[in-house]
Recover the amino acids of this structure.
């Protein structure tokens, strides 16, 4: 037993080994003995490591953790700790209605309460599906207990008729083929189902792969953790190593507040640009930063990240999937390329005990077609633009997915490069969009921008991934696959649509989108990063004065609590009152009897 351990009194001993309070110690310990533990273990001066289990039958993207946890426990035991697994409220992106986003803050709250109220000294955060990663990191930031991320890893690559088919991305492509009448329902189903060939999360660079990459870029997982496909043996080895390291960080007292610094968040933003990451990363990182007490503004995504080049040739911005990304070196190769080009804060601390610079020093791309060298990128300036104007204070645009065709049609008018003036067509949520998009009387053509509102955090509730609206069937048949789209909701990280989204403040709380009408002229200017309704000031003010907030229908108690306390996407969509809480694991709760 090391000195560190001999001298250390663990938080869990306040429950299980407190000679000053034998009555409570007995009460706390007896029930934990009726399962796998003995008094010798629980009173032997060993740290207790929680395993926050996000996998279940309801959460298939994370179900690999149900199997990985055995290797995590072995690692914890071999390093001299005691593992205790506990369940996390399920968050499944494609299964949860009305949105999984609604549940991110609920899982966060649940994790904070567990880490505060139970005899836990450190925690392994199991992550995978989109919102599981931010929920776990937000909770760890609020608790500030030693914590380490274990990603579940992506599914194996999907194949259909000899071609790669990636999670989500295949859905958007196949919907267009269905609209054009090129495939039937059965082929549509087969193509989409072929994209999910094994356990694991989405195999594209959607929100799941992005957020696990963000956890690694922040320094919260072991180097190389995020990209290992779920079924690979290396994933099992990573689970074991993560369990071992979880014990060491308790002994070293290495906490999220030591890792989650401003520099760490800037590193994550730069990595996000280089991987062509999801537009969901900004609200999730904003939320983690706010719970960690780090200043981060939505505009930092442009100032820090815009001029970083796209290196990862992975769908939806590129062509490959998770297996190729892993073989090419994954996130360490991306970070190694960025570091060599002077584009990372190399001094930032990681959970491995090494700095970022030390952790990725020897890493470069192992396949320059899949991960490009820094000076031979897929495209320059691959980060997000942050737009503003009279329709919102801020909204994001992902530039790495702007296709040549989109640029030529909408952004390359002679004499007005990057400027597009058009007529607005406004939808009140996805039901309205689906009901009316093919209505010829709307007059949707190439000079149209599609708007959707009422789909933000308060409006939906939870903010829905619906902004990547497909054009009318007639336009798709004429070869126009995308129109510019704008909304106060989000879109899937697997979408290749360069939408303008996450508009904050949202319409139902009185954001500018609320006053837009179908037929208004709007002007998008990517040189100035503005989007404005070209409505005379007086008329605009009159619409504002006449506006009344819509009546919201809550379907569950949580929806009402969430809507009462949630902030806007630009601020992370946090429960605002929760952002004031810091280091809650330190503030020991009272005895319960
Ligand atoms: Fe769960 Fe994509 S739907 S990871
Ligand atoms: Mg999604």
């Amino acid at each position: 037993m090391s000195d560190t351990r001999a001298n250390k009194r663990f938080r869990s001993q306040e429950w299980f080994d407190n000679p000053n309070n034998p009555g409570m110690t007995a009460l706390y310990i007896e029930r934990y003995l009726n399962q796998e533990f003995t008094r010798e273990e629980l009173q032997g001066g060993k740290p207790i490591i929680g395993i926050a289990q996000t996998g279940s039958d309801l959460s298939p993207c994370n179900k690999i953790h149900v199997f990985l946890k055995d290797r995590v426990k072995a690692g914890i035991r071999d390093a001299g700790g005691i593992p205790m697994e506990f369940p996390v409220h399920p968050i499944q992106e494609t299964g949860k209605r009305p949105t999984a986003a609604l549940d991110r803050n609920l899982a966060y709250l649940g994790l904070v309460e567990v880490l505060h109220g139970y005899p836990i000294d450190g925690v392994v955060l199991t992550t995978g599906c989109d919102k599981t990663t931010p929920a776990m990191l937000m909770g760890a930031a609020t608790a500030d207990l030693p914590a380490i991320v274990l990603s579940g890893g992506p599914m194996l690559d999907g194949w259909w008729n000899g071609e790669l088919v990636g999670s989500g991305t295949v859905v958007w492509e196949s919907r267009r083929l269905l609209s054009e009448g090129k495939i039937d329902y059965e082929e549509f189903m087969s193509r989409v189902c072929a994209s999910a060939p094994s356990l694991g999360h989405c195999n594209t660079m959607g929100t799941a792969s992005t957020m696990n990459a963000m956890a690694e870029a922040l320094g919260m997982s072991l180097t190389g953790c995020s990209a290992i496909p779920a079924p690979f043996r290396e994933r099992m080895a990573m689970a074991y190593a993560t369990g071992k390291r979880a014990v060491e960080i308790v002994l070293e007292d290495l906490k999220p507040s030591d890792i989650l610094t401003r520099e760490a968040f800037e590193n994550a933003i730069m990595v996000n640009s280089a991987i062509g990451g999801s537009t969901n990363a900004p609200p999730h990182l904003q939320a983690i930063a706010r719970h960690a007490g780090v200043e981060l503004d939505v505009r930092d995504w442009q100032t820090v990240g815009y001029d970083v080049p796209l290196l990862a040739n992975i769908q939806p911005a590129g062509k490959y999937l998770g297996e190729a990304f892993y073989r090419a070196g994954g996130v360490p190769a991306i970070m190694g390329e960025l570091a060599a080009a002077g584009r990372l804060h190399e001094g930032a601390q990681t959970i491995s005990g090494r700095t970022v610079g030390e952790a990725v020093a020897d890493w470069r791309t192992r396949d320059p077609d899949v991960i490009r060298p820094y000076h031979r990128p897929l495209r320059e300036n691959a980060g997000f633009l942050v737009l503003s104007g009279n329709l919102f204070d801020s909204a994001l645009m992902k530039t790495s997915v702007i296709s040549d065709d989109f640029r030529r049609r909408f952004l390359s008018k002679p004499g007005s490069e990057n400027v597009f003036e058009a007529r607005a067509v406004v939808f009140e949520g996805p039901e309205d969009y689906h009901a009316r998009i093919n209505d010829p009387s709307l007059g949707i053509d190439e000079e149209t921008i599609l708007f959707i509102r009422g789909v933000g955090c308060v409006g939906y509730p939870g903010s829905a991934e619906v902004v990547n609206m497909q054009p009318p069937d007639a336009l798709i048949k004429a070869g126009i696959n995308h129109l510019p789209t704008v909304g106060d909701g989000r879109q899937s990280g697997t979408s290749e649509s360069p939408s303008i989204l996450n508009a904050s403040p949202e319409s139902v709380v009185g954001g500018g989108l609320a006053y837009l009408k179908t037929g208004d002229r709007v002007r998008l200017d990517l040189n100035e990063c503005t989007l404005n309704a070209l409505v005379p000031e007086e008329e605009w003010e009159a619409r504002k004065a006449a506006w009344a907030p819509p009546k919201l229908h809550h379907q569950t108690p949580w929806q009402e609590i969430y809507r009462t306390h949630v902030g806007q996407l630009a601020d992370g969509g946090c429960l605002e009152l929760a952002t004031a809480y810091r280091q809650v694991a330190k503030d020991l709760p009272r005895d319960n009897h």
